[in-house]
């Protein structure tokens, strides 16, 4: 890996005493009596021990997935919450620094909607998908490529300069076709040219892909879930992770305790068939199944509203979402 250089990560446990005698912060003013240990220090040491336990728990996962390609679809509430977005950027850098190869695909539906409202443009939806006329496409391109992608790349690079922003039209990365006439300039992925992504990964960089592609010289907006699945399949990724606004697949949508921690492809198809998986979750699960059929090792649905959910899912025993596997 590259030399990490100066770290912008906040050091933990700021309340521990400073042992540097040249630092005024190491003054004994307000310290505990000689021969005693303050409650503050005891609490801080307990926190360190917990941190060590977490690191030890992560070690076998780091060893197992070192060098593995992990495609992450960044979306949902995490995109519009500044604190969650900042934590996501730090988590991506940590994944990179321990040897994983993250590839990020992002949408920007809420941001596009907000800018359309600001400009007085009305959105129309067909089957839950935004109709994209020429004006809407111009706004979508501006938001996805110029704002969301740029902001995410900058947030990652603030911690370590490894992120590279791409659109789906870069080197014709995404080959698309019009999805349906009634949707306007909405495209669907027909194939992915992964060579550019692979070159960036070989250089130990983190590709950040916005979902604008071209067909016959015309730009199209593409569903980010579909792009993430297609990119993961083309790369033969070890894992594909979707950040969503739900905990994962649940037997009872009103009962968080009914979360299904793991699903085989066969069981997932059966749950779609009997209606257990319904509504907007159906196309997402169908995309997951296509990715598995295409050779992706496993697909994960996690709640992006939880801080550090990527690390919890990848590097701990907890497993906080739903993992789908072929068998």
Describe the structure.
- The protein is an alpha/beta fold.
- Helix content is 40%, strand content 20%.
- The protein has an 8-stranded mixed β-sheet with strand order 5-8-2-1-11-13-14-12, with helices on both faces. A 4-stranded mixed β-sheet has the order 6-7-10-9.
- A hairpin with a 2-residue loop joins β3 (125-126) and β4.
- α8 (265-273) packs antiparallel against α9 (281-293).
- The chain is globular.
- The two termini are 34 Å apart.
- Mean pLDDT is 86; it is low at 1-7, 11-19 and 24-30.
List keywords for this structure.
327 residues; disordered N terminus; single chain; 40% helix; eight-stranded mixed beta sheet; 10 helices; four-stranded mixed beta sheet; globular
Write the layout of secondary structure elements.
Blueprint lengths: L38 H27 L3 E6 L2 H4 L1 H16 L3 E6 L2 H10 L6 E2 L2 E2 L3 H24 L5 E5 L6 E5 L7 E7 L2 H8 L3 E5 L1 E4 L2 E5 L1 H12 L3 E6 L17 E3 H9 L7 H13 L4 E6 L5 H7 L6 E4 L2
Parallel strand pairs: 1-2, 1-11, 2-8, 5-8, 7-10, 11-13, 12-14
Antiparallel strand pairs: 3-4, 6-7, 9-10, 13-14
Helix pairs in contact: 3-5, 4-5, 7-9, 8-9
**Low-pLDDT windows of residues:** 1-7, 11-19, 24-30
Measured by DSSP, the beta-strand proportion falls in 15-25%
Largest sheet: 8 strands, mixed
Which structural class matches the secondary elements?
A: alpha/beta
Task: Give the helices and strands as they follow along the chain.
Answer: HEHHEHEEHEEEHEEEHEEHHEHE
**Helix content, binned percent:** 25-40%
The neighbouring-strand order within the major sheet is 5-8-2-1-11-13-14-12
State the shape: globular
Number of E-state strands: 14
Discrete helix count: 10
Whole-number mean pLDDT: 86
Q: What does the radius of gyration come to?
A: 22 Å
What is the straight-line distance between the termini?
A: 34 Å
């Amino acid at each position: 890996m590259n030399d990490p250089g100066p770290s912008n990560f906040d050091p933990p446990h700021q309340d521990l005493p400073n042992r540097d005698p040249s630092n005024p912060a190491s003054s004994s003013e307000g310290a505990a009596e000689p021969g005693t240990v303050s409650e503050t220090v005891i609490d801080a040491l307990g926190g360190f021990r917990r941190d060590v336990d977490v690191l030890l728990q992560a070690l076998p996962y780091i060893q197992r997935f070192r060098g593995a390609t992990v495609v992450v679809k960044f979306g949902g509430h995490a995109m519009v919450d500044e604190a969650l977005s900042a934590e996501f950027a730090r988590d991506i850098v940590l994944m990179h620094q321990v040897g994983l190869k993250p590839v990020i695909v992002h949408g920007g539906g809420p941001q596009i909607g907000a800018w359309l409202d600001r400009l007085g443009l009305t959105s129309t939806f067909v089957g839950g998908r935004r109709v994209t006329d020429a004006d809407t496409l111009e706004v979508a391109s501006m938001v996805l490529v110029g704002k969301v992608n740029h902001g995410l790349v900058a947030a990652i690079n603030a911690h370590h300069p490894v992120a590279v922003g791409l659109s789906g039209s870069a080197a014709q990365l995404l080959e698309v076709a019009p999805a349906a006439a009634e949707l306007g300039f909405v495209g669907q992925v027909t194939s992915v040219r992964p060579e550019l992504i692979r070159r960036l990964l070989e250089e130990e960089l983190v590709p950040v892909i916005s979902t604008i592609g071209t067909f016959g010289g015309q730009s199209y907006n593409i569903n980010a879930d579909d792009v993430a699945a297609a990119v993961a399949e083309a790369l033969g990724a070890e894992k594909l992770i979707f950040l969503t606004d739900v905990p994962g697949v649940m037997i009872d949508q009103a009962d968080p305790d009914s979360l299904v921690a793991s699903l085989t492809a066969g069981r997932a198809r059966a749950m779609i068939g009997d209606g257990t998986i319904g509504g907007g979750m159906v196309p997402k699960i169908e995309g997951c199944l296509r990715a598995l059929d295409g050779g992706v090792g496993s697909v994960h649905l996690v709640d992006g509203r939880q801080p550090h959910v990527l690390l919890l899912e990848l590097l701990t025993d907890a497993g906080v979402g739903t993992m789908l596997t072929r068998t």
